[in-house]
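FAQ: What does the model actually see?

It sees only this:
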Amino acid sequence: MTSAQWPPRRTASRPHQPWPGPDLDALTGLRSGKPSFYPEYRVSAVRLRRVILALERISAALVRTMEGSEALVRAVVEAAADHLSADWVVFALVDGRLKDARPRHLVLGPDGVEWTRLDLVPANVRAHVEAVRTGCEDDPAEHDPTHARRHLHVPVRLDGHTVGGFVAWTPSDREVDDTDHSVMRILAGQTAAALQNCALLERSERLYARTARQAADLRARNDELQETQAELGAARQREVLDSERHRIARELHDSVTQYALSAGMHIELCRSEITDPRLRGHLDTAKSLTRSAVEQLRSAIYALNHSESRDKDLPAMLRQLSTVHMPDELRVEVRIGGDPVPLPAEAEQSLFRIAGEALFNTAMHADASRAVIRLAYRADRVRLTVSDDGRGSPEDVRRSLKASALSGPSGEHRGLGNMQTRAVEMGGTVTFRRARMGGLQVQADIPVAGAKVVDP
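And it is asked to produce this:
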């Protein structure tokens, strides 16, 4: 029956049967009248299906590249064993080639069992492993036609150099043909490229990990460097402040204090020569004021020269200020709200000067017996208050401050102006009000970011 006669016509003597549809043989003309065509086609079709299946296995094995060279080697050896239905399959790399690839050799025996010890495998298998590792490409089995039908040796080449090889032995009912050679050459070429990609990927991952560690180390070193630079800057700033304090202390000691002492001596001399009680009373007042001025100057000189204050924070400096050369009749308390936080050196020095000026005014003019210094760290500012129980008046202070601003730098009431100037330079304010103790309260509010504690 020719292909033109398919499907067969129905006749009256044959009952109707459903047409099964065209099969592969009918569509490819296998039912033609050529008796030699069909067997040859069947052989070609079987080989084609086997090649397609082998290429699918190879593709599935090569995608294991991302898992590393060990997973890749096992996958390609298993693909070769499946394709050839082999009893033994060997994969080995030449010593010194693809140094990062692992394992350096792999032997699969019957039933796909991996043999890790070469001394337990057959002698001919072990000999082929050693031959591939040494780079020998000459296979003695090629000279034995009978054995060559069940034995396969395919070198693995990369960039024109042999880097390894596949060796396989098939069972007696499975002969190696040209299709198998083609499939194994494809597998060998793709395996070489995949192993090189694995090596590049592993190197990239190691390089990335090393770069990440170096970046983390650089970040840590940069943080340490910035911290060291901040400490050096603070130390340099403290050194400049110390130098300036010592210079001012020397000038006060060598000039202002000597003038005040000389003035006191002249007042005492005049007092000894005057008999008028009213004039002697005025001279006694001038002498007392001169003595208080000398004491305050000595207190300022002591504070400027005291070496222990250079590393102290503001609360410690205020406590020291309250105990150094204060009049015996004035009792000073220092109260700190919450846990102090570090402040810039300029802010601490300015607040310290404001507190010192306010306390000096209390000692000299307020006729007070008690003074309280409060330092409160808030969420957005630092508040310093100096309160006393003296006879100072907020209205008088405001008038004096206004008069000082109008009269210019004449020297009168400069302490009040200095306090206000220091606060304004830090972006803050100074206010004067009646203290709950009955006297005057000086309050300075300075904005400071990051300070957050409870108000006292």
